User: What shape does this take?
Amino acid sequence: MISILFKEISGFFTSWVAYLIMAAFMLFTGLFLWVFPDSSILDYGYAGLDSFFNIAPYLFIFLVPAITMRAIAEEKKDGTFELLATRPLSDWDILFGKFLACLGIVLLTLLPTLIYYFSIYQLGITRGNIDTGAVIGSYIGLVLLGSAFTSIGLFTSSLSNNQIIAFTVAVFLCFFSFSGFDSISSIISLQGIASFLTELGINEHYQSVSRGVLDTRDLIYFLSFTALFLFLSKTILGARKW
Amino acid sequence: MSIEVSDLCKTYGNQKAIDGISFKALPGSVLGFLGPNGAGKSTTMKILTCFIPQTSGTAHICGFDARTDSMEVRRHIGYLPEHNPLYLDMYVKEALAFIGAIQKIDQTEKRINDVIERCGLGDQQNKKLGALSKGYRQRVGLAQAIFADPKVLILDEPTSGLDPNQVIAIRALIKDLSKTKTVVLSTHIMQEVDAICENVIIINKGKIVADDTLTGLRSKHNNQSLENIFIELTGSHVHQAQII
Assistant: This one.
């Protein structure tokens, strides 16, 4: 598992995917946070990272599938999956190695954004006037969101040999699981089960963690969400043995 | 007995890819696996290497069952798949070190140098795999297969698409490796069988139609050329007659 993890990480950096994703993430969040007047902190006037944490999930919807799309699809297409599967590695070894590598890239992408926190900390009229608890909560929320999206991405990557298909399906699934349930719950005839439907969506739990309250229910939700899609990917990988 | 296969079957849907094949292979010899395209050669190899399981029958490698003890089997085999898949953005040493890490080999550095020398990769060792010619890529594939010093080598068309010089070099390497290992290789090239195989299995439509030593096979068929024996056994002589 560790050997797969290292191989994947070094693959991300030699193929420039990692740099590209990190640069894109920094660029977009930077623009939204400091330049675009609608969401800029400087125009908004409050020393908070709310607009960053609002925009980040939507960027993740596109960037995480871009990280994960090649993970299994490329191995299957190039036939290198056969190399791995005939070595003393279980399918779980391969899958976990890839999952942790992709999640590692997601964490690395988040790391430079700590500079936003530092800037706002320094820029507040009374220095340090920022809700640190909420920021920590929101970062934990983003990491959990990232792991949920990564597992979706690995699942779609295992479905197809084609990276474009893997990417497109993953973007759709990520978007739907993030905000799709909220939208469905607003349908009038489903009002009876509206709260149940929003509970199914990621957004509800992400918002709850972002408030800085670490509820075990949210934690269990994210972990089981990730586990579900990892299990589905394992099932697809194992399908060659049916 | 290094490889022992008995009554192996594999069906994809309704189609029987292999249909009750049984054979054995001994250490210190090269077993040639012949057959027309789609005869079931690659399928058999995929089962032996635990990539896919059989529908019925058993396959034992070094005494371990390929289905129930697949991790042990995978520790004992080296496999060069058809078309030689490689991570083209890795460097030669990096690719070998990766295999070493998977197989948990001690003294990887030393082993890498040994294998590079053995496979004649010395002057290409600092290149990316994507920058290597087909012959050298094939050597890297072989180097990966022999890296963990397996007792059994399974090579799926190891010389396809190479130029005559490269073919001869790869054959010499395989021959050399077979002194200490059991080698099973599949091929379409009859001269190759002549050059390196002691034993021959010809398989057609999922069934074994000949399983003999090279000399034994010849004497049974009036010392005809291997090509004619192959055509006779795999049934394509009918089509040939029509063409003539």
About this structure: The first helix of chain B runs from residue 41 to 48.
